[in-house]
Design brief:
By secondary structure, the chain is of the alpha/beta class. The protein has a single domain, classed as Rossmann fold (3-Layer(aba) Sandwich). It has five helices and six strands; from the N terminus they run βββαβααβαβα. It has a four-stranded parallel beta sheet with strand order 4-1-5-6. The radius of gyration is 18 Å and the shape is globular. Bound molecules: magnesium ion.
Amino acid sequence: MRPPYLLLDVDGVLIPFPDADGAGPASHTRHDVVPIDRRSDNPVTVWLNPAHGPLLTQVIRTGLVIPVWCTSWRQDASTLIGPLLGLPRLPYIDLPRPQITTSHPNGYLWKRDHVDAWLGNAPVIWIDDDFTDLDHEWAAERTARGRTTALVQPDPHVGLLAEHLVEVLAWSVLLPVAQTDVPAIPHEAEAG
Ligand SMILES: [Mg+2]
């Protein structure tokens, strides 16, 4: 059984919303990055917590989840944001670029339909700051259909905390136990 996906948002998760002065929390460090669609003389300022790199690395090294970026940063998450935290180049979901003025154009997160199709039947734990009640209903319905789905929702003004990743690990440790119960029986019979 493949491990579940861990979908990772960037804005509001790794990059908290700035304060009134445009700065990030004291825990975060300023970087200027140049996304792939911008000129080098027009960088974007981001605030990242250097502690997030080792925390995420520990989660990735467990092998309990398959980390995938799920963010409007798209490949820039893999090539710009992740490396600033010391992360390897992780895969990313190539989200569409809808012309929208809100992140909930239909009352739920704009990424969701694309993610739903991308996931197929795969189990997932998804960290994003921007879920609505309809997204939580979607997760519950998906889980009820046997596609185990968990949403983790940091406060966008604070961003990702260690406790969110503890939640990811606690969830993923329990998941394979139930799912590998059945295949384990014929394997034991062969051995005996
Ligand atoms: Mg976000």
